[in-house]
Specification:
By secondary structure, the protein is of the alpha/beta class. Helices cover 36% and strands 15% of the residues. The longest helix is centred in the middle third of the chain and has 21 residues. It starts with 11 loop residues before the first helix and ends in a 5-residue tail after the last helix.
Length: 449
Amino acid sequence: MRLPVLPHMRSSARRSSTRLLVAGLFTGLAASVLLAMPAQAATPQAPGDFTGHGFDTCVAPNQSTMDTWNLTSPFSAIGIYVSGSSRYCGDKYQTNLSRTWVQRNANNGWRFMPIHVGRQSPCFKNNPASRVQKKKMSSSVATARTQAVAEAQETIAALRKYGFGAGSVSYLDIEWYARTAACDTIVLEFIDAWTEHLHAQGYRSGLYSSGSAAIKLVDEARLAGRPGFTLPDHMWNAWVNKKADTKGGPYLSDSGWTNHQRIHQYHNDINVKHGGKTLTIDKNFLDVGRGSVAVRQSKPCGHTRSFTSYPTLKVGAKRREVAALECLLKNQGYLKTVDTKYGTGTAKAVKKFRRAKGLGTSGTANRATWTALLARGTNPRVLKQGSVGQSVWRLQRALTAAGLKPGFSGVYDAKTVKAVQAYRKARKLSGYTTTDGAVWAQLQRGRRA
């Protein structure tokens, strides 16, 4: 191997003191913020392509809480109440919610579930003690449809106000009501008109309701083939069974909304703390859009870097892992050519890399060498369940080299969550399920599990 000429290196003493300083600065949550800030503005996703955890809460949280939960919680999506006269937390209570708030949180990776709470079933019973007395749909089909169109126009205006473009979903909130044939007819007509108008304007329709109320009603209409009825694009099933999945139970049959079109609200009205910040929330699990779909992993130098284990390599080794090692060294400026022969040039490059990263002076590539090399790259602000992209592949490779078994799916899935938790525990980091700057810092220093 031919070695490149590397930039002048500082003395080892100065380098060691610098590493200690950096390690002190980039610890815990501070490391997450400083090492992984978003690079550019993102298009707000409502909710976009995703399979993973979300929550909804009455009032959009302040930015400090959103930032903390972004880094420490498993949630990637938040339900926000954007429109409707029957919201318990209407505009006057939404002191944080704005286009700027949406954009900033979109930049940090948050997804959104915009909620509209307007007219309710004619059979809905208001709580006399509530500060909000919800309006009801007319008992006239024609009038109810006109009301639905007006509310669809209202939610479209709100979506545009907050920066959600065409293709975004607005979720119509139909609260529980005691079902009757007459009320069911009105509710179906209202949902149909709402959905048709959203579609006509380039938006999509979601239905949120109690499983035993409008969710079951609409599923029954689908099964019966109700003539002329336009189905909502998403079904958000409020069924509290405390299981984070998108099964519909006795309310939403398996044959409907099967193409990543479901949200399950599985645990309601609970106080949850992450990173020292507490919110009262409902927990949800989403499978929407295309779901969380892995990107094809990149192969710089034309060689795979994903192996079920990363062997110790030394001079004389001839195997495909050598090419992967050399490619990693080349990408970081330590080598100029790549083959499958571990010669003296490769050993010298490994030695320089290890010395630079505080991993000793040997020319042998051990597990710590692999871990540090595989983890190198630009860090996203945070990765969590449902995340995809090249950074997820990179994380899975680094965790594997560190001695764990996340698998190679390209999706931050349950196995990856388990591996991250094990790594955090081994490195005495906070017990989150997320990968933030603190995790990357340990991996990039070659720290094993």
